[in-house]
Amino acid sequence: MSINDMNNHDFYTLLNKVVRPAAPVSTFELLFGREKPLNAIESVLYSDGRSVFIYGDRGVGKTSLAHTIAYKLQEENEPILVGCEPSSTLASIINDIVVKTKPHKNHKNESSISAGINLLGFKVDTTLKKTDEKFHLNINSISSAVLALEDLTKIHSHKPFIVIDEFDQIESQHEKQNFGRLIKALGDQSINVKLIFTGVSDSLHSLIGGHLSSERQIHQTHLEALPWNGRFKIIDNAFEAFGLKIDDNVRYKIAGLSDGFPHYVHLLCEKILTCSYTRNKSIEKVEHDVFLEGLSDAVDSISETLKHDYVLATLGRQEYFHHLLWAMADAEDLQREKKTIKHSYSEICKQKQLSALAEKQFDRQFNKLKTPEFGKVIVNAFEGRKGWFKFKENMIRGYVRMLAENNGVSLDFQRRFTAGEPTARHVGVKTSTYKPLTTVEERAYRIQKNKEKN
Q1: How many CB atoms lie within 10 A of CB 448?
Q2: Looking at the domain 317-453, which fold is it?
């Protein structure tokens, strides 16, 4: 059946199965390109006393990886999924875990456990009462939290898997550190509960800071941008589900514009497939015109929080601020040296048939992008090292790439300036080869510049 012959119910139901731009993936069948970290985490979670912390940029797929591994390994029941917010505490998270616990089928309708002991000078007083409708839990120490989680092995399953998402949202450093102490206690007491955290790297340091010995019990997984083969698998799976072929150039564009963020791959596929479905004529292959229509819809649907800094830097300002930001989004390098940014900027000006800013003016205008007035959308890449820059948040880069493409500018997604490797495939655009200067050439260049000034 052609995509254009489907009714709304069938189309949107299938669309929701193959692309998930707004919800995390929780099945291995849709988690493309993450086989290596998934296998590594799985091997760790079979070990006693081990927990996992998955960290990386916003939108890189941390929650999807955590959910997938939890659903894959959980037996007897479903995994327990909780999220954090700024006011969250150890006590509130443990309470959320218990509230969301579904008893396994062999568990009695009501159970009550109460303990009150003195341990190393600390009063432990925990009460867990569970009925079909209500939980009640009082946590006043690490030990009481351990007892509460231990009881889940009787209520939920013999080995509960718990995902604690967005750990970095917790504002209190003390509360973050309490989880480090909890992990240490769970490992020392051989409590058969598996915790999977997601967050940014700073929150991982706070967690370990709670008890330095907990570091050996926390498997740390840094999730980077989705590799190209993973991006292509998402794209191919989505379009094949509807019996559609896709132009090779369009396929490459989707993968490159996403910048390795699964959210963007899913979003672009969703919008392009929807545009294909709503067309009056029957479509068998997605060509460039449908891609551009879907791209425009994707750009319009990007969240306001991601748009905010770009809008602040460009709205009501000279057009070249757009071009400067597009230049920052060029190439594969996340950290860009200013001279390579200038090269990208000059290539953009050639495509737009515009005169480029003079060198001094370029420097002045580019530096404005680092100020609060312009949203601080660009920041220094390395502390104490001048001349290197990056986006304030890596996820912004994918949005900027889509904006550039939507305005007729093709960027080079795979070029690595730092390695001096121009890609062989800069689609549809002729560019000069950039060659980084050697040390001798750099010195000669500076001498020549000084002579010109004098």
Answers
A1: 10
A2: Arc Repressor Mutant, subunit A (1.10.10)
